[in-house]
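Ticket 4471: requesting a sanity check on a complex prediction with aspartic acid. Repro inputs:
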Amino acid sequence: MEARKTPNWKTYLVFAFSTLIFLVLYLTPVESFAPFPVSLIQLLRAFFLMSALYILFEKLFPMEIYTKILLGLLLGALAGIIFQADIVEIKPVGTAFIRLIRMIIIPLVFASLLVGTASLGDPKKMGRIGIKTLVYYLAYTAFAILIGLVLANLIKPGTGLSGQAQAELLQNFGGELEAKVSGLAGQANTIDILLNIIPTNIFEGLTNSILLQIIFFAIFTGIALALMPGEKARPVLAFFESINEAMIRIVHMAIKIAPYGVFALIAAVVGSFGMEILLSLFKYTLVTIAGMIILNFTYPPVVKFFSGMSPMVFMKGIREPQLIAFSTSSSSATLPVTIEACTKKLGVPLKIAGFVLPIGATVNMNGTALYQGVSAVFIAQVYGIPLSIGDQLMIVLTATLASIGAPGAPMAGIMMLVIVLEQVGIPSEGIALLLGVERILDMFRTTLNITGDASAAVVIAASENELNPPNK
Ligand code: ASP
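Returned structure tokens:
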């Protein structure tokens, strides 16, 4: 990390100057600046407000990115309460941030799924263990999403906004309702929906962001590449590996500006709709965490049922990777500790742990999937968009695929949430609401993700009669 420079008096001066100017400009009615045009005043005050925020975050108190995002949320809410509808003019900063994220989704999903599938190797050679692993992973992921959907539908954390507020919110923040309506019109019945996953022209899928088609094509291409002789597949794989890497770098860049995007979007939302929306956000966070706690308690009985291992032994054995996952928010970074715990404490042979766990770190994300289920329903509730059973099934399908496509890295889940939202036509700007609580939810998600991986390692080892726990 760069050595921290102590800010000098000039920085304080510029900060004080920017703060003063934006306060004066916001607190004085715009008309009193005539003959200067209103739009010029709006532009100036937004500029000084963002400059003050920039100096505060980057120069005066350099802090960890997640702290900045959380502070962006709090200060944004505060600005919304103080300046009300006037603050809406800074929304373009937030919109730019969301567009930046959306820009990378398609290449990111395509490249990471293609590379991920190809790295699983020849499906024929993957054999029995591979099939069992995938079935366990997919089934548990779908189950986790169901827990999320049930909770969000029962508790309804996103309702409570008046009908008029929802209509306005949708008009101001949701550019995609039309897409939803036209999408639904085109998807008459279940057979058509399923058939429509197979693209007839992949470029049509790519240009129209039909993500399930893109995912389908990427998986098939990945399998085909795995079946080809190494030297023939290598150039294409290397190309997509590089694209994947480049997109992940753009994600990191986007995250750097997230605090400002979050500030702008939250300020605009709270400025127009008041505090009710924050109360909903609080409820949403509690519901998501409750869901993850429930999910956590499903693993010991499942492990006991399939392997006979005592719940105590399992929970104690995975305590260490759970703690690392909680503190790093990265399944991939936790992987070595997960392997160590499964082999040393739970008695999974290395040949099984070494296969099941690395795949699990990117493919199996139960916590992420649950989170996506709750989040999609929550955002739809906030916007007042009704979700049919078909929409919810679509969420199960896309969230399962999205959690497979997500790399085991911090904030991957929220990026992939955009896919889920777009697929069912929920405005993806909605993720702005969630960014402020992203860090804490990511910590929980990752913990659950690696617990799911470890449970698979134990269950699969037991099914192969190869489990040797130190004390069952
Ligand atoms: N951070 C999570 C993981 O590494 C992925 C996510 O963002 O949900 O498992």
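Notes from triage: Confidence is low (pLDDT under 50) at residues 176-188. Leaving this open until the requester confirms.
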